[in-house]
Design brief:
Largest sheet: 2 strands, antiparallel
Order of helices and strands: HHHHHEHEH
Shape: globular
Number of domains: 1
CATH architecture: Orthogonal Bundle
CATH class: Mainly Alpha
Strand content: under 5%
Oligomer: single chain
Number of helices: 7
Helix content: over 70%
Radius of gyration: 19 Å
Number of strands: 2
Structural class: mainly alpha
Length: 221
């Protein structure tokens, strides 16, 4: 299935923003959290078929999404299965990496700048935060105590690491959650570097494309 309509990226951008904003609010409400997870599950499955140009990519995405969704649902129903949680976070990281790369290919192979491209670029930026959130959670599962997490964050570890990821990606750095282990510190630094580099490269790319388009139009006159 090809990426063709701008509404797809506009909708995905809105959904991601709502997911990021609403997720921490739902931590204390079990029923709303389950309803939210149902919606998110459907979105993730649909996302496999929405953002791909190639026939195999959606099916690879589906295969990666299933363990992640099983891990999310088992947690919601109070089942703590360490191995499933580890596999779920690995597959989640791979899933969002796949979607990000797929959209990046679309961005850097297009020859025009419009609302679709801008929405796609913002979607990738948000997906980087989600991807690293899964990575931080995985590190803590493999090496407990890798992060210094305040007591009031403990009840919502998943959303806490997602929160930490976006704070690191945007280089805000409140300091309420801090990396302790070497792997946690390295991954945190890498996210900060990639977050800033992505924005710089992206702006340069979009500006360069716009300049090239303007020069091409001028030369035709």
């Amino acid at each position: 299935m090809k990426i063709s309509t701008p509404e797809r990226f506009h909708s995905l951008l809105i959904i991601l923003l709502l997911t990021i904003i609403i997720s921490p609010i739902l931590d204390e409400n079990k029923i709303l959290a389950i309803i939210f997870d149902i919606t998110l599950s459907l979105i993730l499955i649909a996302g496999c078929f929405t953002v791909s140009r190639y026939k195999m990519t959606p099916w690879i995405g589906m295969a990666l999404a299933i363990p992640m969704l099983l891990s999310i649902w088992s947690t919601q129903f109070g089942l703590n299965i360490p191995l499933l949680n580890i596999i779920g976070n690995i597959s989640g990281s791979a899933y969002f990496a796949l979607i990000s790369i797929t959209i990046l290919v679309f961005i850097f192979t297009t020859r025009s700048v419009n609302g679709e491209i801008i929405s796609a670029a913002l979607v990738v930026y948000l997906l980087l935060g989600v991807l690293w959130g899964f990575g931080y959670n995985l590190i803590d599962l493999l090496d407990p105590g890798s992060f210094n997490v305040p007591d009031h964050f403990i009840k919502a570890e998943g959303s806490s690491y997602m929160y930490y990821s976006f704070i690191t990606l945007t280089t805000v750095g409140y300091g309420d959650i801090t990396p302790i282990s070497g792997m946690a510190r390295s991954l945190s630094m890498l996210e900060g570097i990639i977050g800033q580099s992505y924005m710089a490269v992206l702006v340069a790319r979009l500006v360069g494309m716009q300049v090239a388009i303007s020069m091409s139009k001028t030369s035709r006159k």
